[in-house]
Design a protein that fits this description.
The chain is an alpha/beta fold. The protein is about 40% helix and about 25% strand. The strands form 2 sheets. It has a 9-stranded mixed sheet with strand order 6-5-1-9-10-11-12-13-14, with helices on both faces. The longest helix has 15 residues, at about 285-300.
């Protein structure tokens, strides 16, 4: 039976807006490329400020994107999340069920969270995130039986601001025999929680980080960060933008290059890299092949707006990696 992945993270509905001038980010006091938590009023202000541009909606959230991608790769998946009992919450849950994800959902009184993704002309995305009901996913809701029967637990880095939730997730995963993977998510989140990340690092099996996140964690170059992270976990992955990615497991180290593609929107690139990498791992591919599959999914997603791909792009991926087509939705 194919190994399975249970994700936990913020259930958000992405509201995607492409802008033609980065001055808007300065006006909104949003550092380009960052993820900022905002309240409902600030979120509404962002919506008004970018209201002149066309926007689209899609189910989102970092871990949710990865789990959705894994499901499309034919991997058995589940997702632990919290939404409001509202239209956006139903939209999110239905979208996950549609690709075969088993929802483990807590319905709350607050409105479903939203992530306003502002896409710059160069494809870089900046998030103003109002967590809403997502923040009501708390440690006391988790039980060991939720994690039993799963092989991997995938945690999004944005959750590390809720340290009790992350600690409980790791503890219950280990009790249930799950390996734990985490994506560091955003450099500013890493900076604010560096001590906590260093504390839990030895309990993590797979770590995904981009160059900025790795530097925030270690203060070092990507190569030195890779070595540091790999000393504490089974597999370390440091993504280095247009130069590809660095991967290390024990004494094995590989670098994966990138292809030149037309970048439309970088939303979900890291999430899809993680999905491809873990799908490769579960299918028994080599470390290099896992990186190539992760890279393929990342390169595909940045050529569209948002963190979801059309069936045409997925079919092209299945042609290159036929093992993914089996059981995919």
């Amino acid at each position: 039976m194919k190994k399975s992945v249970l994700g936990i993270g913020n259930a958000l509905v992405d509201i995607l807006t492409r802008i033609d001038n980065d001055n808007i980010l300065k006006e909104l006091n949003l550092p380009k490329g960052s993820m900022q938590h905002v309240d409902a009023a600030a979120s509404a202000n962002v919506g008004q400020t970018v209201g002149q541009y066309e926007s689209t909606m899609a189910p989102g959230g970092s871990s949710a994107n990865t789990i959705h991608g894994l499901a499309k790769c034919g991997i058995p998946t589940g997702f632990i999340f919290s939404t409001g009992n509202d239209e956006m919450g139903r939209f999110f849950e239905d979208a996950m069920k549609e690709v075969g994800v088993k929802p483990i959902v807590y319905h709350r009184n607050a409105h479903t969270g939203t992530a306003r993704a502002i896409i710059s002309p160069d494809g870089e995305r900046t998030f103003a995130t109002h967590l809403g009901a997502a923040v009501e996913l708390t440690a006391d809701l988790l039980r060991k039986e939720i994690f039993e029967g799963w092989d991997y637990c995938y945690i999004e880095g944005y959750l590390i601001m809720n340290q009790d939730l992350v600690r409980k997730t790791i503890e219950l995963s280990k009790q249930a025999g799950c390996k734990v993977a985490i994506d560091l998510a955003s450099y500013n989140v890493v900076e604010a929680n560096r001590d906590f990340l260093l504390e839990i690092l030895p309990q993590i099996d797979i770590v995904f980080a981009n160059e900025e996140e790795a530097k925030s964690l270690t203060g070092s170059t990507p190569e030195e960060s890779l070595e540091f992270i790999a000393e504490h976990c089974e597999i370390a992955v440091v993504k280095i933008g247009k130069r590809g990615s660095l991967i290390k497991r024990g004494g094995e180290k590989v670098q994966i290059g990138c292809n030149k593609v037309n970048v439309i929107d970088t939303t979900g690139a890291g999430d899809m890299y993680a999905a491809g990498f873990m799908a490769g791992l579960i299918n028994g591919l080599s470390l290099g092949q896992c990186g190539e599959l992760g890279n393929c999914l990342a390169e595909s997603i940045i050529q569209v707006v948002g963190a979801k791909m059309d069936e045409g792009r997925w079919n092209a991926i299945y042609e290159k990696f036929p093992m993914l087509k089996n059981n995919s939705k």
